[in-house]
Structures are given as structure tokens and as C-alpha cells.
């Protein structure tokens, strides 16, 4: 386990009611996903198809991108290409600046989180208002999102009530989710109506028609796309699929896997600009071609950002999204971070997993997430010195049966002391949020021998 | 080399062109009647009314408009107006500045089709004009021919009206605007309509 992840997890979600409510809220989504899957007879076949369709789309991505560009351009959109995060940020800023746009409404886009678009624009005097309710909550609290579809899931209603009492027109002590949502609705309406431009992400792009597909439950992307005269859509190159027919499969899987809904409330197929307005689509690489060239890991590009692997992950559920220190947390974040994340600490994220495989079991496009985590571990994932020493000691012990037996006996002897928190116990931080089970008192061999003796008698 | 050339060159080098396209997906058979559709619409937080005959439709829609809004600003698109005739609604100007629609209490539009598997209605951008109307309104009424309900998304996307993807937007709407961003508690009316009613037409 990555030490940095552990430290941040403890800061954000110390053991207690907050940890319990975070765990319960995200696991509720996992259960809704299961129920939706069980009640849809096509569900498992859709997952198989989606996996094949993504493999095919990625294997023909060059042609898909060129076709998408040609069709979108023919429909009146302007297509831009950005090699990395700085290029995306620069292109978006230039588009806004050239039109004198000072106020931007933005709907959820993990890509722009990955690229740090908001701080870039804000430092250049542009007001960026996140309009997804969860994103607005974390933006007002000066935090990044902690979940890819529920950005403020780590916050309680009391936290949000206090935040809104400070930032919006809400009486102190308000904790009712409906009234808090109503206050945000009134507040954000004003921003929608006054915006000079809208920025959205893109869930899917269809090559054969040059269409971008934007999915929300709140309708915030649709309000953005229908009011200001400029719409900038930020699109990761891996999201382009060849045909409208495949879109049906992905749309049937996306909401069911994310929240258990059969479809999200708003699914907009946008081809070209609104009459009298401009549509700019920025295609972003930012490390994706590196993953594409990596046979072992290219399948991770099939991710449709549903969040199912986060909701089921025992590490994510207890650690929370911030612990990962990367825009995309959870198992998929740990798989993407070594290629897309840049920093050493992020390259170490594949260590932050129990490898239980629950993520792979729920992925709608059947990405073999836990296998990918193992594959990353076999590469030069950065490890701390203590971890390297411990791994070397463990390897030496496992290779020598006699040493293994002695070590086992010694471990049972020190177990009572190590499994409790006390000052000076090096395991104390680890134990802050975890309980170790009592030791059975004898090794498996000893118990087996006793068992055989008993049977003989 | 431009960014475009560079990205495309890298993608080309990594694209194997070996994986075959999967054979067309064959969905399970399912019902595509108004009752099946209505069940999913209601599950998504919407209301289903009817089906009604073309003759009684306008009176029923007017009843709901009155119950909802007490007769303040109700707008109907040309197609909806043509269907309903005179009533407590005015035709909307498709050229209207969308910002002038911020105080619309009820908007009435014609849906292009329904989808039985999820209770969604397809809104054709040529009908749903101005684009802001169905999302800015406080409450939304959609008229739906009961003969135009597809069983699932495969049929719906295969059956998109001609030219649906050659113009600004085609939008699927499934229920009123909603959020669960505060502790996962479901709240209707996040940004868009607080309520959605679908009137089935055709007996």
C-alpha cells in the first residue's frame, strides 16, 4: 500500500461516522448497479459486446478520429487538437479570450480535472462556475472532486449546509438536501443566464456522424449548451466510437453501472452548433497515445467513467477519493495514473489495491483492472525504501521453509503487541482505521497435525 | 508537425486494425406499448397520462397546466400548438432569445418517440426549439404518439428520424431533472424541469 495514500486517507476520512457514511453511500451505488444488472436480461451480453466494441474502436482509432473530425467540421463545429494538458488549457483560453468571454459555466468533465483547466482559466481572470451540484459544492469549498460521478460524496449534509450558509443565501443550520439543492438551483440559474460561454466534457463521440454525446442527470450541460453563444467541448481521443449503433450499447450500460438508472435523465446527441452559436471540440491526447501503444494497458482506454469500480473497491470505500492524489481515483485511476498522471507518487498508485478483483467484476466494458494493477507492479512502479526492504525480507523468508516456520512462531509471539495501537508501534498509523483479527494461536501445520492425530485416535 | 499530425501519427502507429467489429447486438425481445413505457417513466420520477384520443387531448393537457401553474406563462412549440389548438398556452417564437424563457412555468413539446426500456422520450432539435425551452422551463409536458414507442435503445437509435444527426441536437429526456449529490439523497428539479408529464396520444 502506498504510504502517501494511507496518510491522506487518514486525514480525510478518520475512522468514525464520516467513514461509515462514505462507505455506505458509495456501496449503495454498487448495490443499485447490481439490481439494475439483474433486472436487465441483456446486461451481461452488453458487457461482452462493449468490451469487443471498445477494442475494435481503439484498434481503428486513427480512422475514427479522422472521420469524426471531417463529419463534425462539415456539421459546422471547429475541431482542435491538443497534445497535452497545457495545450488544452491554452486552446480553451484563447477561444474565450478572443471573444471577450469572462464568465463560463462548466459541466462535469474528468478530462478538464485531469488537465487542471479551472485553475488555469481562473488565474487569467476568467470566472469558471462548475454547475454540476456536487462539483459546485467542492468548488465552493476549494476542494477537488472525490468521486467521478458523485464529486462531493465525502461531504455530509451538515458540511454542505454550513458551506451554503457561508457562500449562498441559506439560513444557518439548514441540512435538508431538497432545500440545499433548491438554493443551489437559484444560485446557478443566475450564472447560466449570465454566462458568456459553456464548457462541457463529452461522454462519447460518434465518428460516422461527427456527433458528441453529453450525458447528465441534472440538465446542467443542456442549459450550458442552450444559452451562451459559445460551447467548448473537451474530448479525450479515446472516446470516439465508429457507429451510432454502438452508442446504444454504451448508453444502456453507462447509467445502469453508475447509479442503477436504466438511462440518465439527459442524453444529448449534438452535431454541429446551435443556430447563431459556435461549437468548438478540442480533441485531447495527454498521454492517451502512450497507453494506446502499450498492449498491456491499452484496454484501460475503454473506460466509460461510470464509477462502478470505485463504488465496489474496498480501498476506495474506506480511503476516499482524495487519498489517491489524482483527478481520477479508485481502481481505474490507479491504472491510468502511471501513464497519465506524471508524478512519481501517482506512478505508485497501483500499489494501493488489495487485488481482490471486485473492480474487474463490475466494469461495464470488462477492463481487467486488477490484472492491469498487477502488470504495473511488475514494472518500475516507485516504492518507498521501507517497502523495498520489507519486500526483500519477505522474499528471503518465503524461499526458506525453516526460516518461514521460525518467523511464523515469532510473529504469533509478537502479534498481541503489534495488533494494538501504542506509542512507538510502527503499525499504529495503519491500525488507526483498521482492526486486526485475533491470532488463532497455532500455525496451519500445527493445527493440521493435531487434526490428523485426532482422526487417528 | 502540427499537434493534429503528431497525435494522428502516434495513434496510427499504435492502431493494429486487427480487431474485427463485433457482430450486431441482438437485444432480448420486450414490450413496446404505452403501459410498459409509462412504468419506466414513473420510476424515473415522471408522470404518464393517457393514452387519450386526439379529441380529448387538449382538455386534459389544459387541466394539468391549470393544476400546475395557475395559468402563468405556458408556451407550446408550433407542433404542439398545431396538435392542441387554442388553450391556456401561447406559441413560442423559435427565434426568441433563449434568455427570455427563464420565467416559463410550463413548456409543451411533441416527443419524436418513446423508449420502453427506460422511459425516455426523444426530442428532435427541429421541434425542440429554442433549444433552451425544455430545460429552462419549471415544468415540462411532452406529447407522445403511442404508436411511436421503441422497445429499446438499439431500435431507438436505429429509428432516429432522417436528418436527426445532421442538425444541432437530438436529446433523450428520461424524467424530471434530478440530482443525488448531497449524501446520495434523490432530489427532483436540480436545474431543469421539476416535473415531467407525458401525454400518450392515440386510442
Characterization of the model:
- The complex is a heterodimer of chains A (457) and B (203).
- Chain A has 457 residues and is of the alpha/beta class.
- Among the domains of chain A are: 40-286, NagB/RpiA/CoA transferase-like (Rossmann fold), CATH 3.40.50.10420; 385-456, no CATH class.
- Chain A is 53% helix and 11% strand.
- Chain A has helices spanning 3-12, 17-39, 43-59, 61-74, 85-98, 110-115, 117-122, 133-140, 157-167, 177-194, 220-226, 244-258, 288-292, 308-312, 314-319, 330-340, 344-347, 358-362, 369-377, 385-398, 401-418, 428-431, 444-456; strands at residues 78-82, 103-106, 127-130, 197-201, 204-206, 211-216, 230-236, 240-241, 266-270, 278-284.
- In chain A, the strands form two sheets. Chain A has a six-stranded parallel β-sheet, with helices on both faces. A four-stranded mixed β-sheet of chain A has the order 8-5-6-9, with helices on both faces.
- In chain A, helix 16 (330-340) packs across helix 19.
- Chain A is globular and about 90 Å long.
- Chain A starts with a helix and ends with a helix.
- The model of chain A has no long low-confidence stretch (mean pLDDT 92).
- In chain B, 27% of the residues lie in helices and 24% in strands.
- Chain B has helices at 3-14, 34-43, 54-69, 78-84, 133-136, 153-158, and strands at residues 47-52, 74-76, 90-91, 106-110, 113-115, 120-124, 139-145, 149-150, 169-173, 178-179, 187-188, 195-201.
- Chain B starts with a helix and ends with a strand.
- A six-stranded parallel β-sheet of chain B has the order 1-12-7-4-2-3, sandwiched between helices.
- Chain B has a single domain (31-201), classed as Rossmann fold (3-Layer(aba) Sandwich).
- Chain B contains six helices and twelve strands.
- In chain B, helix 4 links the parallel strand 2 (74-76) and strand 3.
- Chain B is an alpha/beta fold.
- The mean pLDDT of chain B is 94.
- Classes of the chains: A alpha/beta (457), B alpha/beta (203).
- Chains A and B meet through helix 2, helix 3, helix 4, helix 8 and helix 10 of A and helix 1, helix 6, strand 9 and strand 10 of B.
Amino acid at each position: 500500500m502506498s504510504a502517501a495514500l494511507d496518510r491522506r486517507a487518514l486525514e480525510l476520512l478518520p475512522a468514525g461516522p464520516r467513514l461509515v457514511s462514505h462507505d455506505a453511500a458509495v456501496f449503495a451505488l454498487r448495490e443499485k448497479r447490481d439490481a439494475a444488472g439483474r433486472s436487465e436480461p441483456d446486461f451481461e451480453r452488453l458487457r461482452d459486446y462493449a468490451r469487443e466494441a471498445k477494442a475494435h474502436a481503439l484498434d481503428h482509432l486513427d480512422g475514427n478520429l479522422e472521420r469524426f473530425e471531417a463529419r463534425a467540421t462539415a456539421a459546422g463545429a471547429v475541431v482542435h487538437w491538443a497534445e497535452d494538458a497545457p495545450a488544452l488549457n491554452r486552446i480553451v483560453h484563447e477561444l474565450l479570450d478572443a471573444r471577450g468571454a469572462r464568465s463560463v459555466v462548466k459541466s462535469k468533465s474528468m478530462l478538464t480535472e485531469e488537465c487542471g483547466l479551472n485553475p488555469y482559466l481562473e488565474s487569467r481572470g476568467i470566472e469558471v462556475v462548475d454547475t454540476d451540484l456536487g462539483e459546485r459544492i467542492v468548488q465552493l469549498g476549494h476542494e477537488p472532486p472525490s468521486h467521478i460521478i458523485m464529486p462531493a460524496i465525502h461531504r455530509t449534509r451538515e458540511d454542505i449546509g454550513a458551506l451554503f450558509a457561508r457562500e449562498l443565501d441559506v439560513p444557518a443550520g439548514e441540512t435538508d438536501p431538497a432545500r440545499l439543492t433548491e438554493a443551489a438551483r437559484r444560485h446557478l440559474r443566475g450564472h447560466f443566464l449570465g454566462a458568456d460561454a459553456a464548457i462541457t466534457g463529452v461522454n462519447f463521440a460518434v465518428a460516422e456522424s461527427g456527433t458528441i454525446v453529453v450525458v447528465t442527470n441534472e440538465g446542467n450541460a443542456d442549459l450550458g449548451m442552450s444559452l451562451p453563444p459559445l460551447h467548448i467541448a473537451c474530448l479525450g481521443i479515446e472516446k470516439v466510437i465508429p457507429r451510432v449503433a454502438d452508442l446504444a450499447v454504451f448508453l444502456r450500460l453507462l447509467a445502469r453501472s453508475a447509479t442503477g438508472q436504466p438511462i440518465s435523465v439527459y442524453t444529448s446527441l449534438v452535431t454541429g452548433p446551435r443556430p447563431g452559436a459556435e461549437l468548438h471540440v478540442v480533441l485531447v491526447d495527454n498521454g492517451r497515445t502512450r497507453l494506446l501503444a502499450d498492449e498491456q494497458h491499452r484496454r484501460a482506454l475503454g473506460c466509460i467513467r461510470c464509477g462502478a469500480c470505485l463504488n465496489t473497491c474496498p480501498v476506495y470505500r474506506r480511503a476516499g477519493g482524495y487519498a489517491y492524489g489524482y483527478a481520477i481515483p479508485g481502481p481505474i485511476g490507479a491504472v491510468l495514473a502511471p501513464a497519465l498522471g506524471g508524478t512519481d507518487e501517482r506512478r505508485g498508485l497501483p500499489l494501493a489495491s488489495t487485488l481482490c478483483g471486485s473492480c474487474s467484476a463490475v466494469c461495464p466494458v470488462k477492463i481487467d483492472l486488477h490484472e492491469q494493477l498487477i502488470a504495473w507492479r511488475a514494472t518500475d512502479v516507485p516504492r518507498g525504501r521501507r517497502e523495498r526492504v520489507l519486500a526483500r525480507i519477505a522474499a528471503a523468508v518465503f524461499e526458506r521453509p525453516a526460516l518461514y516456520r521460525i518467523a511464523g512462531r515469532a510473529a504469533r509471539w509478537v502479534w498481541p503487541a503489534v495488533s494494538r495501537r501504542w506509542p512507538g508501534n510502527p503499525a499504529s498509523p495503519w491500525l488507526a482505521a483498521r482492526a486486526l483479527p485475533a491470532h488463532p494461536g497455532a500455525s496451519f501445520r500445527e493445527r493440521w497435525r493435531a487434526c490428523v492425530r485426532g482422526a487417528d485416535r | 508537425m502540427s499537434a493534429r499530425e503528431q497525435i494522428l501519427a502516434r495513434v496510427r502507429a499504435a492502431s493494429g486494425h486487427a480487431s474485427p467489429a463485433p457482430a450486431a447486438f441482438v437485444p432480448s425481445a420486450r414490450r413496446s406499448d404505452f403501459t410498459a413505457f409509462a412504468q419506466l417513466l414513473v420510476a424515473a420520477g415522471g408522470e404518464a397520462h393517457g393514452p387519450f384520443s386526439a379529441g380529448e387531448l387538449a382538455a386534459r393537457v389544459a387541466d394539468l397546466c391549470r393544476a400546475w401553474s395557475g395559468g402563468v406563462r405556458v408556451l407550446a412549440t408550433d407542433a404542439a400548438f398545431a396538435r392542441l389548438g387554442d388553450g391556456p398556452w401561447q406559441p413560442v417564437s423559435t427565434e426568441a432569445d433563449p434568455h427570455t424563457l427563464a420565467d416559463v412555468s410550463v413548456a409543451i413539446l411533441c416527443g419524436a418517440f418513446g423508449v420502453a426500456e427506460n422511459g425516455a422520450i426523444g426530442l428532435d432539435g427541429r421541434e425542440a426549439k429554442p433549444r433552451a425551452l425544455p430545460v429552462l422551463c419549471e415544468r415540462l409536458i411532452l406529447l407522445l404518439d403511442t404508436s411511436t414507442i421503441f422497445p429499446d435503445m438499439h431500435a431507438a437509435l436505429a429509428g432516429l428520424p432522417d436528418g436527426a444527426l445532421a442538425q444541432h441536437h437530438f436529446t433523450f429526456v428520461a424524467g424530471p431533472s434530478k440530482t443525488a449529490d448531497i449524501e446520495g439523497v434523490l432530489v427532483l428539479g436540480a436545474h431543469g424541469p421539476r416535473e415531467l408529464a407525458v401525454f400518450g396520444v392515440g386510442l
